[in-house]
């Protein structure tokens, strides 16, 4: 290692394979890689939202979620049955935390009576993008779970997170004074 830290490129993936935690090498197109890659995309989309600027309390919640997504991605990147001493696992409290926040934030929003179109403020629109990326990650995890062991807790977290992102987008748009665009069905 140089004085600059860990080298970014290893060349180990040049042939189209990558390593999972637990020593397996798989094609980069493997469902497990697709799943944790989509989780990473979700995390990046949330990072963009934070860079656009949201109120401090929401920023702290987004920071926590980014850390939870990193743990979830690590769990997906681990070969099933591998015991990594000291490795963090996402617990049910993380799912419950999302639910509690949804309930609190939703109480301050007008009741939802129609489908709304994604948009509003820049941060609100970016949160809707993060929500759809999250849904894609959830679909990739569902695909993986059809062929390999995946904890149902991870699926519950991703399902709840997309709802959480939807509600937080509404909160951000409300705070920005943006009226929600209702889908007219045309």
Question: How would you describe this protein?
Answer:
This protein has 186 residues and is mainly α. It has one domain (17-106, 119-175): Cobalamin adenosyltransferase-like (Hypothetical Protein Ta1238, Chain: A), CATH 1.20.1200.10. 58% of the residues lie in helices and 3% in strands. It has helices at 31-52, 56-76, 92-107, 122-145, 152-175; strands at residues 17-19, 25-27. It has a two-stranded antiparallel sheet. A hairpin with a 5-residue loop joins strand 1 (17-19) and strand 2 (25-27).
Ordered list of secondary-structure elements with their pairings:
Blueprint: E1 17-19, E2 25-27, H1 31-52, H2 56-76, H3 92-107, H4 122-145, H5 152-175
Antiparallel strand pairs: 1-2
What is the string of SSEs from the N terminus onward? Answer: EEHHHHH
CATH topology: Hypothetical Protein Ta1238, Chain: A
Going by CATH, the architecture would be Up-down Bundle
Helix content: 55-70%
- Name the shape in a single word: globular
Can you count the helices?
5
CATH homologous group name: Cobalamin adenosyltransferase-like
Sheet with most strands: strand arrangement? 1-2
Query: How many distinct folded domains?
Result: 1
What number is the mean pLDDT? 88
Query: Any idea of the CATH class?
Result: Mainly Alpha
């Amino acid at each position: 290692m140089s004085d600059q830290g860990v080298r970014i490129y290893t060349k180990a993936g040049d042939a189209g394979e990558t390593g999972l935690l637990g020593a397996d090498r798989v094609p980069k197109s493997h469902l497990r890689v697709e799943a944790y890659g989509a989780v990473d995309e979700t995390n990046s989309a949330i990072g963009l939202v934070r860079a656009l600027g949201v109120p401090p309390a929401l920023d702290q919640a987004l920071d926590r979620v980014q850390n939870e997504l990193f743990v979830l991605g690590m769990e997906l990147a681990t070969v099933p049955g591998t015991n990594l001493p000291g490795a963090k696992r996402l617990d049910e409290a993380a799912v419950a935390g999302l639910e509690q926040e949804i309930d609190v934030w939703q109480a301050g929003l007008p009741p939802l009576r129609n489908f709304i179109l994604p948009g509003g403020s820049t941060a609100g629109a970016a949160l809707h993008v993060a929500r759809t990326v999250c849904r894609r990650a959830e679909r990739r995890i569902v695909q993986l779970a059809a062929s390999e062991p995946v904890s149902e807790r991870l699926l519950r977290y991703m399902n709840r997170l997309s709802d959480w992102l939807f509600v937080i987008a509404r909160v951000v748009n409300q705070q920005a004074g943006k009226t929600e665009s209702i889908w007219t069905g045309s």
